[in-house]
Design brief:
The structure is a single chain. This protein has 533 residues and is α/β, with parallel strands linked by helices. It has one domain: Glycosidases (TIM Barrel, Alpha-Beta Barrel), CATH 3.20.20.80. The chain has 19 helices and 15 strands. The strands form 4 sheets. It has an 8-stranded parallel beta barrel with strand order 1-2-3-4-5-7-12-13, surrounded by 6 helices. Helix 9 runs parallel beside helix 11 and helix 10 packs antiparallel against helix 11. The radius of gyration is 22 Å and the shape is globular. The two termini are 34 Å apart. The structure holds 1-deoxynojirimycin. 1-deoxynojirimycin binds next to loops. InterPro entries: GH, GH_1_N_CS, Glyco_hydro_1.
Length: 533
């Protein structure tokens, strides 16, 4: 059989877990691969200069929530109120990366990746935002990480803000609902550029502002948990208007920070800067022109909402058409610095949904909303699911979607460089099956199929420069806590030991261009490219 484990991999195996257990896993993997069939996806199917990486975010892994001068942030405070996070989990210890960063960087290096995406904890380096001093211990922590990465030849790919900020900014003026947050953000970004920019060639200003506005101000499930009916039942908030205000402040904060970077740092430091968006793909529920239009609106109201202002200087025409009177105006000076304020697009892509028209068709009251683009979403068409279930029910496995979304971005944004900043799989939850989590064949299958679809999009001309697996290790998955696992490494929650899953070994092999691992096609959802559809 062509998939027999090599001596080297057995040595690897022996070094990480019990030898017999590992042998057993290898046997399973071999059987699995033997039964499977399909084309190969190889590292060499991607351009030579293409970057492969793995990603994390500060709050999801660091822990040490009150150590060495870090202040309480929005997630610390949120998780202290009962009932907010599943199982009462929190990020106080998380994966203890703050203390185990060296070991984690060794794991990252052992995967053989070119780059590592991580975020900086705002409250660790500026515990009181711009109302207090820079915390030297916080700066030192990220300096150590950057130095380690650079000395090992791993390119740092740094997210400045990934959902966590000092609680003081919430308490003082309501954080992102206020334009004052723009000033705090620019001060924070400036602190990052000044201290870390000599080693960082890839910056992203923010992670998923489009998802954040929805989760924090529309359905009220992320802090500061604001919403109104029919989206949710929060003590305060307005789900129809606040997301729009928050996004406006975030976009202006981005634009101002990028302007500052380009003026004061970019020439000397030679880095590039982008933004990361949640890029869910929308397909029409039916062939009907109304649903096709709804799918186009879905993309414009989620992706275009952020990327149009940062590319063309204004909100999408689709949004102006339907909610023009609700959208804030950019001044002409703002349009000027917003336009072309990204060097690349960060694409977080996991799944695809069907879109159904609500402008001319009957929909539920919560779907038929202006801020959502007057459309409903569903994963089911004629009783058939769009793809296999994952640990997050809205994220079905739909490999073709990554090619489709990249194609959409290519057309709409003149093929601006893109990085797939996140793509990953969490298995549907089962009670007490931690051992199974290590034999994560479904995760391998997921990455192979999505990579195949992506490789085809690149062959079709999409300007995609890199791909990051989400995530290095199981972590604090926000309101779902530790039960949902996306990692290549399993974390034993008692000992915090890192245990490699089969997917870690697969990624390692893939990056060595091991051509023996086939695309595994056991699920009903097959990769199909434009030509098939
Ligand atoms: C996107 C977010 O950036 C990340 O923090 C999260 O863990 C993944 N999606 C999975 O839900």
């Amino acid at each position: 059989m062509g998939h027999a484990p090599t001596v080297a991999s057995m040595i690897w195996c022996n070094s990480v877990v019990s030898y017999n257990y590992c042998k057993f896993q290898w046997l399973l993997l071999c059987c699995f691969l033997f039964l499977a069939h399909g084309e190969n996806i190889k590292r060499s199917d991607f351009p030579d200069e293409f970057l492969f990486g793995v990603g994390t975010s500060a709050y999801q892994i660091e822990g040490a929530y009150l150590e060495d001068g870090k202040s309480l942030n929005n997630w610390d405070v949120f998780s202290l109120s009962p009932g907010t996070i599943r199982n009462g989990d929190n990020g106080f210890i998380a994966d203890d990366h703050y203390h185990q960063y060296l070991k984690d960087i060794e794991l990252i290096q052992s995967l053989g990746v070119d780059t590592y995406r991580f975020s900086i904890s705002w409250s660790r380096i500026l515990p009181r935002g711009r109302f207090g001093d820079v915390n030297p211990d916080g700066i030192m922590f990220y300096n150590k990480i950057l130095d380690e990465l650079v000395s090992r030849g791993i390119k740092p790919f740094v997210t400045i803000y990934h959902f966590d900020f000092p609680q003081e900014l919430q308490d003082r003026y309501g954080s992102w609902l206020s334009p004052l947050m723009q000033e705090d953000y620019v001060h924070y970004a400036d602190t990052c550029f000044k201290n870390f920019g000599d080693r960082v060639k890839y910056w992203t200003t923010m992670n998923e502002p489009n998802l954040f506005t929805q989760m924090a101000y529309q359905n009220g499930r992320y802090p500061p948990a604001r919403c109104s009916q029919p989206f949710g039942d929060c003590p305060a908030g307005n789900s129809d208007t606040e997301p729009i205000v928050v996004m406006h402040n975030m976009l202006l904060a981005h634009g101002k920070a990028v302007n500052l970077y380009r003026r004061d740092y970019q020439h000397e430091q030679g880095g590039s800067v982008g933004i990361v968006l949640d890029c869910l793909m929308y397909e029409p529920l039916t062939d009907n022109e109304l649903d096709q239009e709804a799918a186009r609106r879905g993309l414009a109201f989620s992706i275009g909402w952020a990327l149009d202002p940062l590319t063309f200087g204004d909100y999408p025409s689709e949004m102006r058409q339907y909610i023009g009177n609700q959208l804030p105006q950019f001044t002409s000076a703002e349009r000027k610095f917003m336009r072309n304020s990204i060097d690349f697009i960060g694409v977080n892509h996991y799944s695809t949904t069907y879109a159904k028209d609500c402008l001319y068709s009957d929909c539920s009251i919560s779907a038929n909303r202006a801020t959502k683009g007057f459309l409903d979403t569903t994963s089911e068409r004629d009783g058939v699911q769009i793809g296999e279930l994952t640990g997050i029910s809205s994220l079905r496995v739909v490999p073709r979607g990554i090619g489709e979304v990249v194609e959409y971005l290519k057309e709409r944004y003149d093929n601006k460089p893109m990085f797939i900043t996140e793509n990953g799989y969490s298995e549907p939850q089962t009670e007490g099956q931690d051992q199974d989590a290590i034999q994560d064949f479904k995760r391998i299958e997921f990455h192979q199929m999505y990579l195949s679809s992506l490789a085809q999009a690149i062959r079709d001309g999409a300007n995609v420069k890199g791909y990051f697996v989400w995530t290095l290790m199981d972590d604090f998955e926000w309101i779902i806590g530790y039960r949902i696992k996306f990692g290549l490494y399993y974390i034993d929650r008692q000992t915090l030991a890192r245990v490699p899953k089969m997917s870690a070994k697969w990624y390692q092999d893939f990056l060595k261009n091991n051509t023996q691992t086939p695309v595994i096609r056991l699920s009903s959802e097959l990769v199909h490219n434009k030509a098939d559809s």
